[in-house]
Amino acid sequence: MNRVIACLLLLLAASGCSSTAPVPEDRFYRLEPVGPLQSLERPLLTGGLAVGDVLADPMRSGRAILYGERDRPLQLKRYHYEFWVDQPPRMVHQVLLSWLRASGVADSVADGDDVSAAWRLSGQLLKFEEIRDDSGAAHVEVAMQFSLSSASSNRPLWTRDYTRRQPVGGEPMYATAQAMQSALTGLFSELQADLAAPAL
What we know:
By secondary structure, the protein is α/β, with parallel strands linked by helices. The protein has three helices and eight strands; from the N terminus they run H-E-E-E-E-H-E-E-E-E-H.
């Protein structure tokens, strides 16, 4: 009798295991290098532009895709199984380098703290997340702060904040990555205009 009960318990355990839902697969998203629609005919920043690493707080330095809710603006959460291929500050830095080199705003663009460069650009990633509302609709928010300084000055010539909000449409996470790409394109267009301003 005990043997029959033991067999029944094993069968029940086996059937329970077979009905367990499969573990979701990790998915990864990247940002593509992009360039401006229009490049300057001649550079306005001569002597080289050095672009420092993009900084970010610990939460936005992780690879998990972040999201928030409109009615809880002080709270951020992380998606499970949805990741960037690299840390957002590093991805944004590479896209920024590609953009600036294609823009023609400087005669050369160096990656890092090139002491021989006449100009230096530093940046900080302030927002890089998806925002949801009660209806399920979403948008992404990207915010950055940039400072431009010259080798002859010990302080920034200017420090400016840039913010872009881009709607998300279509399949949720892939559309989020596309919206991030579009938001950065708009943000870098504003930065390019400021770098090319006659006041420099």
